[in-house]
Amino acid sequence: MENRSARNLSGKTVLITGGSRGIGRAIALRCARDGANVVVAAKTADDSGQKLKGTIFDVAREIEAAGGRALPLQVDVRDEAAVATMVERAVSEFGGIDVLVNNAGAIMLQPTELLPVKRFDLIFGINVRAVYLCAQACIPHLKRSSNGHILNLSPPISLEPRWFVQHTPYTTSKFAMSLMTYGLAAELKDVGVAANSLWPRTLIATAAVEWLGGDALINGSRTPEIMADAAYKILTSDARTTSGQFFIDEVLLRESGQTDFDHYAARPGHELIPDLFVPGQ
Known about the structure:
Blueprint: E1 13-17, H1 22-32, E2 37-42, H2 56-66, E3 69-74, H3 80-94, E4 99-102, H4 117-142, E5 149-152, H5 168-188, E6 194-199, H6 207-218, H7 225-235, E7 246-248, H8 249-255
Parallel strand pairs: 1-2, 1-4, 2-3, 4-5, 5-6, 6-7
Helix pairs in contact: 1-2, 1-7, 3-4, 4-5, 7-8
């Protein structure tokens, strides 16, 4: 990455959607180690009786323990009023917003003929509508930041048929998210706010991956910390010179001088499985 800045996230306010577990949680904790203010926005406030564990309050406690300040907010990011309230509370608590991480996502890998419309609406509501709502609500505050960043967890766009043939709806939603990155980078260039995308080279050991393929996929995954470390590189870069880019976690970290990736393996000794949409696989 060119034109890297020496700045860190101390005292900056970072709003992360889908922050109660997985990649969102890992990014939150990485930011907290700098002393950032972290807004943990997610739907799960109580995981009792749920298979998936992890709440906004659990992560908030971890953020405080790591050295940051936390604001846990229960939010449905598809809801316009809820998103507006989320941003208002973040600004009231911390005085502004410096970073928006659109991490919340929905997935179902089904072809058009088989995907229920209700699930289609959920996927597009979270992967596209929520990105729009959160960006729109945060932009006025990001413009007042000294180094405002929007980071979308979405892939480089590839129109190869293999990325569509088995799951056109999901692919279309993620590429729409990536098109938002392109558009926001252009819209915000003159005001010094960056918009970038980040995507993993391999599967990441998250609840979604476990749900899709159980141990077989988890064995070939890396931990969310690799995405958190890559996200940190982006969020501490100069927003005026690093924007409109589509980063792959390992590639970015290698370009930054990192050579050891063994510690990211979810299950050491297993062959890593490439994620969807990764160029050259």
